[in-house]
Amino acid sequence: MSHSSSKVIITCAVTGSAHVPSMSEHLPLTPGDIARQAIEAAEAGAAILHLHARNPEDGRPTPSPDVFRQFVPVIAAQTDAVINISTGGSTRMTLDERLAYARVARPEMCSLNMGSMNFSLHPVAAKMASWRFDWEKEYIEGMEDMIFRNTFRDIRNILAEFREYGTRFEFECYDVGHLYNLAYFIDIGLIEPPFFIQCVLGILGGIGPDPENLSMMRATADRLFGRENYRLSILGAGRHQMPLVTMGAIMGGNVRVGLEDSVYLSRGVKAKSNAEQVRKIRRILEELSFDIATPADARAILGLKGRDNVTF
């Protein structure tokens, strides 16, 4: 797999399950809002759309295939972007719940967290002056005593099942150990190149948002996999989003932005949409003389099966 191209894949994570509605009035909650913001993000330059679902009544994360069906086909009808369905869901969901819609849709791409971990935003609760919905405060504070579960058996079973569907993965690596977990599954033959590794920095419970840590993750991946066998993408949580993803692109990686990862556009300024973040990182990348990958480019770079082979 050649890395001679300077094209950078922009992924947009549209809503996620970690942020709650009270953190930003611009966080998309309803199927209509998720579809609209996803389509706008694709029009702004996102080649991949990373999607979660939310209960349209109160914004609570939901694994319901019925809710996914209210916006995924709309997005697929109006954009050629690669649709990436999360298998992460939230810490409150069972594995079967997290996989429910992906099993139906059999998309080109799913996300896959490469290990069990503490994943928490609980310190944010002390900074909130008020809550929009009754469920939010307990949800955020309760993360202090929650574990996101993806055991080796869980990961093995997901890889084996979705291999039959032809689905490829955004391998979310929140720490160096997750890269070694990925290497294990490569060694036993469940994953073949090209690998798409999402390096996640700045989540409490994972590796910190230090530039040195990004360099270490890149060097470790090079050593384990050989740079010719994988494509790196970078996710910087919160205020670290733009600096880290820019650094990652300069290091030869791809980028992920979106309101799932940060509700801000710049210091103290909330992003009014996912498209605003996409437009900002696109402008930065183009100023640095990078070309932005189209959905067709992303499919070719990552070896995806194509939109015609999904069941949205």
TrEMBL record:
Keywords: Metal-binding, Transferase, Zinc. Its cofactor is Zn(2+). The keyword Zinc applies. The keyword Cytoplasm does not apply. One of its GO terms (molecular function) is metal ion binding. Transmembrane segments: none annotated. It comes from the Bacteria. This is PF05853 family protein. It comes from Caballeronia fortuita.
